Amino acid sequence: MQAMAPLDRVVEGLASKQAGAFCGRQAIQPDQPADLRSERRQPKPFSLGPIFVRVVAYDRPELERWRRQAQAALDLARTAADTTSSWACFLAEQGAQLALKGLLHAVGEHAQAWGHDLGPLERRAAAVFNPDWPPGLMEPAMRLGRHYLPARYPDAHPTGAPEERYTAGDARAALDDAQNLVNAVDDMAARLRAADQGGPEHG
Predict the structure, then answer these.
(1) CA 148 to CA 155: how far, in whole Å?
(2) How far apart (Å, rounded) are the C-alpha atoms in residues 93 and 47?
(3) What is the rounded CA–CA span in Å between residue 141 and residue 34?
(4) What pLDDT digit, counting tens, does each position of 144-199 carry?
(5) Contacts 24+ apart (CB under 8 A), 156-160
(6) Helix, strand, coil percentages, rounded to 5, for the chain
(7) What is the rounded distance in angstroms from the CA atom of residue 63 to the CA atom of residue 65?
(8) Do 59 and 41 meet the contact criterion of CB atoms below 8 Å apart?
(9) pTM of the entire structure?
(10) Which residues of the chain carry a pLDDT beneath 70?
(11) How far apart (Å, rounded) are the C-alpha atoms in residues 108 and 59?
(12) Which of 50, 77, 150, 163 lies most in the core, judged by the most C-beta atoms within 10 Å?
């Protein structure tokens, strides 16, 4: 019997138990009246592998719109890295946060794509995409998460303003951490796209 590919395990956990597909937050059944269906684009059902055929809610447009916003934050962070380092660190954190949330939303993990703590977001992505999710990304997520408040608010520090406590080196390190997380998101997105488009069979 053909072995289940790693990404198939993700699909198995996301599969609908009935013939319907999930559309956003609403479960859609084939015999449901059209006027009760969500106005959002219904994700295209697809399968991974010739044996383990399962229906999945992969919302590619949802992922892509979050990813575009993540890129805008990262681009601005790079521009600010040598001039306003505190804001560059915050924007790097935002870029990673937006990318992770977009990935989770795209596979129906709406309840988990909430909050502003990168640690739980990375942990959930690792659980959903295990074993394909790259190891060692919790530390970058935790480092970035520390910039969410202190990079912006003076009262997060004993004295001085955040900009007086951040350096260009801090900004570059934050950008490296953010890029590592975004690269993982992009890798998972590429796997989902390949499956959605009838990519190579798993064996």
Answers:
(1) 13
(2) 34
(3) 42
(4) 999 999 999 999 999 999 999 999 999 999 999 999 999 999 999 999 988 876 54
(5) none
(6) 55, 5, 45
(7) 6
(8) yes
(9) 0.72
(10) 1-57, 197-203
(11) 8
(12) 77
